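INFO  loader      accepted 1 record
INFO  loader      residues=411
INFO  predictor   begin
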Amino acid sequence: MHCKKLFVIGQVWPEPTSSAAGWRMLQLLHLFLDQYDEVHFGSAAAHSPHSHPLEEMGIVCHEILLNSSSFDALIQELNPDVVVFDRFMIEEQFGWRVAEHCPQAVRILDTEDLHFLRLARQEAYRQQIAWSDDLLYSPTAMRELAAIYRCDLSIIISRSEYQLLVDQFRIQESLLHYLPFFLEKLMDLASLPRFEDRKNMIFIGNFLHEPNWKTVELLKTTYWPAIRKAMPEVELHIYGAYASQKVEQLHRPQEGFLIKGRATNAQQTIQSYRLLLAPIPFGAGLKGKFVDAMMTGTPSISSRLGAEGMNPEHWPGSVADTPETFVSQTVDLYTHSGYWQEKQALIPQALSNLMADEQVQDAFIIRIADLSKNISLHRNENIVGRILAQDQYAAKKYMSRWIEAKNIAGL
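INFO  predictor   done
INFO  writer      dumping tokens
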């Protein structure tokens, strides 16, 4: 009987306590473990003390090398049925090797978020210029879109990003699969700390992610002074992994602005606070911090861009794009228990609209199985992908070959 194997090639070893991306990867791995006889995970990154113990889950782990034919030997030996690339940069590095040595394996790109969209918004913010769709057509966009075409299926976490790919870039829907965060069991709101049992406000986010740093900078310089003036006894606590010196320098206890460092358990930490504040100025994908807030019955205040893809019209808190509105909504939600409870009551519906239940997860697995059975026909219908697989468009392949040859020669 055939042993079904799936191989995930990660940009990093998952750290679910450090970032939403790590938490999301762990969700996918649990799903794959239920469906495949063997699940393998490999990464060229170094382990950290916060890397999840994948072996304890029953996953076979491999330390792999960039620009090395040792990966060719590994992928031939494993001969997986499905290979998942964690972000488009990993597909660029390893996709051509997988295609060359395991041509029948279904190749899946886990986009996490659309990097080119986030970077385009970041550039508009940096230059303080009005948004234009022209900003989307960057070299990064061409690379990411090429990776989507080269793969058999790409996982898209945000409904708005799915529509952007279909409407703006005319990507075939046969190449895309919308798969948001997986629905976890929501705690009974009545069992969570009540309005009067909570105090202060929180922000949480991995500081390796630029939007999180800019959000904290905005809170410190633009929003918090006015909030603190209105409520002098209230504090804002900033949590996040990998806080740099520039983050630590914002620590001002006398102003009620405290840098608290890494949260061991995000949801346990959040549930003692009354509000989560996150006026995110740019970004993409879905924001795990808002899901964690909802799971703990905590209303949040976001920008419209931060709430993108998460039903901002029925937000369990407030969506505000001007400092004045953000501050006034923060004060109102923090001080009025009835208003706070009204917003908290929106959480169950917000989560059910947002998350992937078991039926949605099953549909994803069925989609992969169908691809495995009809992979030749599927690829024939993706003519752009076939064109991009040709040698004349394989710059990353030949760059990798060149680096490998240099390394062997000791140059």
